[in-house]
Amino acid sequence: MASTTTEQQQHHFSSIGKAGKSSGEIEGMDVRLLNGHRQSEDYSVLAAILPFLFPAFGGLLYGYDIGATSSATINIKSPTSSGISWYDLSSVQVGLITSGSLYGALIGSVLAFNVADFLGRRRELMVSAASYIIGAVVTTLAPGFAIMVIGRFIYGIGIGLAMHAAPMYIAETAASQIRGRLISLKEFFIVMGMVLGYVVGSLLVEINSGWRYMYATAIPFAFIMGIGMWWLPASPRWILLRAIQGKGDMQELREYAIYCLRRLRGENVDNNSATQEVEDILAELSYISEEGEATIGEMFQGKCLKALIIGAGLVLFQQITGQPSVLYYAASIFQTAGFSAASDATRASILLGVLKLIMTGVAVLVVDKLGRRPLLLGGVSGIVVALFLMGSFYTYLSNAPAVAVAALLVYVGCYQISFGPIGWLMISEIFPLRLRGRGLSIAVLVNFGANALVTFAFSPLQTLLGAGILFFIFGVIAVASLVFIFFKVPETKGLTLEEIEAKLL
Fold it and tell me: Distance between CA 280 and CA 270 in Å, rounded?
């Protein structure tokens, strides 16, 4: 009798994907999904901490690099504090040190496109941790400029892989009730890393060879991340994807997915509820063709094209509404306003970092209650107001520095409750499972590519147009992003990843 039941289950599972329809369209399945007959997913809050924490360290190390590098480039150019003979660096060389990790992140995103689904989310994060460690060690011990840039590049590969795999792992392992909060909390870790980098940098900026210690500080965090990811189980959804694609025995992989799910959700989940959740995921998975692996062409068709427009559009607007440029002006705005601490760019950065932390914390607390769209629409509306105020300050209101300070604080605060956390959250939720690895890699590539474009185009555009006109242009782009969000971005609050595909794509 047991054998017959197993055979029936295997026949049921193997038949998924042969109906020629996508999730939510398989016969009878769309009715069950859309009628909402799904039980809440059981989870233990204590058990949810570590599957979030170790991937989030990838974000913390990204943020730390941003914060530490701002002070490292000051220290490394000092004749008295650099501790090296090659301190007389040109602006191009300093730019390569600063942007070396960004170039590496772009390459990491390209690598993720090809290897993410093969490695899985857990192993990709382990490779990311190894890249962080190697990159930090090479940078710390660099005997010359060229080796330092190589170290920065390797570290950047770790950033690209971590920013690709971490939101996927968290999204695929967290219960739907807390998924938004946890992925938004990853943004909190990025900002916390930035603040940590600013603080460490301010303490070491005048110490001999302080830049080496700044970069070395990342190494223990990367070790913790690597060891933690080695200890954590694989994503159950990735395991089930492999099963449906015929890359292992269906029954063995199903049992392994149940085991991983119970480890991830804690003692609150018994074997029966874990088995039921795995069977629900299997039943609701998107259509998997006989070819198994997703092709590049499929990324630009049907559901995935819609997901790609939503995800890539969000992270593109996240960057081209001027986020890198506004922060670039932070110190000068504080100086113009006459604040005594404004003469120290590091202190101004720490102040902004604390504000970013507070506002990201607000987003974390309310994202699963209010939803994604209200935060995006409200936050980006604030960004629009802030950008037009900054444009007005540099064009008409130069004698009213309080306007610039207020605009800067509004911009930073609104960004951290909207584009900052919600952009990463949405790209981790919106792609169908089969195409999630490659879809997310494209979105991350767009994010870093747009960041590089805005960063490098800012100075010549500022010279050509002036700061005021440039901020007005950013304001117009922000208005366009509001229109995009209103018409294109769906609400995903409270839905499982499979329901998002069935109902919204």
Answer: 16
Q: Give the Cβ contact number of residue 238 at 10 Å.
A: 25
The predicted model scores a pTM of 0.81
Cα separation, 133 vs 158, whole angstroms: 9
CA distance 411 to 326: 8
Question: CA-to-CA distance for 171 and 179, rounded, in angstroms?
Answer: 6
Contact (Cβ atoms closer than 8 angstroms) between residue 285 and residue 433 = yes
385 pLDDT above the threshold of 70: yes
The backbone torsions φ and ψ at residue 176, rounded to the nearest 5 degrees and listed phi first, read -60, -25
Q: Which residue in this structure is represented by tokens 């979030």? A: 52
Span 269-298, average pLDDT: 67
Can you tell me the distance from the alpha carbon of 437 to that of 122, in angstroms, rounded to the nearest whole number? 12
Three-state DSSP state, 389:
helix
Q: Any alpha helices (H) in 266-344, and if so which ranges?
A: 271-284, 302-320, 323-328, 330-336
Q: Count other Cβ atoms within 10 Å, centred on residue 268.
A: 14
CA dist., res. 385 & res. 411, Å (int) = 8
Condensed to tens digits (0 to 9), the pLDDT of residues 38-65 reads 555 666 777 788 999 999 999 999 999 9
Tokens of residue 341, six digits: 């601490």
Position of tokens 């996240």? 318
Distance separating alpha carbons of residues 188 and 324, to the nearest angstrom: 18
- Residue 60 CB partners (closer than 8 Å, separation 6+): 189, 190, 192, 193, 196, 221
